[in-house]
Write a structure and sequence with these properties.
By secondary structure, this protein is mainly alpha-helical. The longest helix is centred in the middle third of the chain and has 41 residues. Helix content is 78%, strand content 0%. It is built from 4 helices and no strands.
Length: 140
């Protein structure tokens, strides 16, 4: 696999993940709307509250999955470039910088659903609160 093949594979992965991210953004918005409507209009219905909560948590799970795939794809690209460099193939300065910036090595990356980025953790916690609080929080 050449450097260009690796970078083209990363571009394809990013396109697929980006498309899925757009769908997840819409789904999270629907979860926010469902949480608001459920909290305002159906606060006495346990079925509505549980349904809206399950939908919101599922949307959040798949948003997290999208981020996990994005992170893994970026790490895998760095790994492939590091392996290419270790094989003696000369790589461009941009690819060498990419390897250094993400801390890639010839050790194969592992897939994880646990976000490694603290900002993503905070964002997911905020989304969780924005879904759960309108449904289960105290009413005015």
């Amino acid at each position: 696999m050449t450097e260009l093949d690796i970078l083209l594979l990363q571009a394809q992965n990013n396109q697929g993940t980006g498309t899925y991210q757009i769908a997840m953004a819409f789904t999270i918005w629907v979860a926010f709307r469902a949480a608001t409507v459920t909290g305002q209009n159906y606060s006495d219905s346990m079925i509505a509250k549980v349904s809206a909560t399950v939908f919101g948590l599922s949307a959040l799970f798949f948003l997290n999955m999208t981020y996990a795939f994005y992170s893994f794809n970026m790490a895998a690209t760095g790994h492939r470039l590091a392996e290419l460099q270790a094989s003696g193939t000369e790589i461009s300065g941009v690819s060498a910088s990419y390897i250094a910036n993400i801390g890639a090595s010839t050790t194969q990356p592992t897939f994880s659903l646990v976000p490694g980025d603290p900002v993503m953790i905070l964002m997911e916690l905020a989304i969780l609160a924005m879904i759960v609080v309108p449904i289960w929080g105290a009413k005015k």
